[in-house]
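User: structure tokens for this one?
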Amino acid sequence: MLILGTLLLSNITITLPSEVSVMGSEITLGQIATITGADEAQIARVKEVELGYAPSPGFTRVFHGWKIEDQIARQFTNHSFVIDGEATCRVRPTVAVITGEELRLQAKEALKAVFEGEDVEIRSAKPLADLTVPKGIKSRELIARPILSVSNTNRPMPGVWNVPIHIVIDNMPYRTVWASYDVQVFREMPVLLRDIAQHQQIGAGDLGMQRTAVRAGVNTKPLRGTELLGATAKRPLRRGDPVTVADVVRQPAVSKGEAVNLTIENGLIIVKTHAVALEDGFVNDSIQVQVQGTLKVLSAKVLHRGHLQLALGSKIQSEILQSK
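Assistant:
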């Protein structure tokens, strides 16, 4: 038996066991030793002596009495002591199990928050195994933070999302595990009602609104009926697919230098005039036009072939209305 001693004046005895289990990620002397004496305040101070990290699940740490004695001597100067108990103490962690299902649900809820307001289906790409961790003294947290860089737009996109789940024990980071998910986003969008052959022209009646999965990696909005007037397919297109500018060759609704009809609206007042297009434009594009008979250049929206509308509330709009 190794004599570890008594603190002078306070008569505190520190007894080491041969083996003990601890909770948390950091070990204090009070967790592994029995400390007795008459001075409760002094006992509390000795119990809080820090001995370092706790072993991970499946491992142990061995503490030597002489090393603990040396550490206490440095922290409690002007005291002479010995420690009663075993020469060594083997420390094992008290463990808890976080199930793979618990990890999966935490990551999935975090992804749902990213896609809040969207119609989504989130499927786990691979199962998560149960995880053995140290049992905390105070708390345990699972913090999932999806990697938002999966999308290069302001709107999160479908595809494979990797979600890190940070395990925090007693307010200290312990470990990070990763969950992988396949996310599908559905939106009401115009899709083809029939198969379209390559080089075949698409008509406005070939489209209908349906709940459709957004293509992963495609950020372009699907074209609507009026935007497809005169368009031909670059490749064979399938029924049920949305159509983007990458799928078709489009004919401009307005060509540069073309005389166009311009509608200007201000409340109940509607004025129609003529202008010259200064650039090509497709349906819903805003292009520069010059009002006929003036030097005024303004931006107008292409409504359909040869017809544009002035942006509402513009200063130039008011000037044109006053001149009519």
